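Quick check before the chapter quiz. The format below is the same one you will see on the exam, so make sure you can read both the input and the output lines.
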Amino acid sequence: MAEPKTKPTDASVEAFLAAVPDDTRRADAHAVCALIGEVTGTAPVMWGDAIVGFGLTRYANAQGKAVEWFPVGFSPRKQQTVVYLLEGFEQHTDLLARLGKHSTGRACLYVKRLSDVDTDVLAELVRRAWAAA
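Here is the expected output.
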């Protein structure tokens, strides 16, 4: 089994966020970075060229192999901001119901604009995911 392609790098998180082309998406990215940093108490690290991760943990992937990954992260994509929670969202239906306009994948939370969601609820999602890591 191959190692994950996305790994931590020495690239500048600040330079990455400053290069987000859309003003609103860039402001959202800075706000999400600050929120996650405050909740986790850790510094952001670039993972690959487009993901900002916080912390480091080991988990067993679908094939049962131990993999190092970040418990919480995000990426300011072209159409939306993606928040990654390693533990997923199944146990957080109470918070998701109060979050605001969003969609989810297995471990991805998709938000078009940060103003569409309750940032206090987002902070609680991050807090729970961080505690579970």
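If your answer matched, good. The chain has a mean pLDDT of 93.
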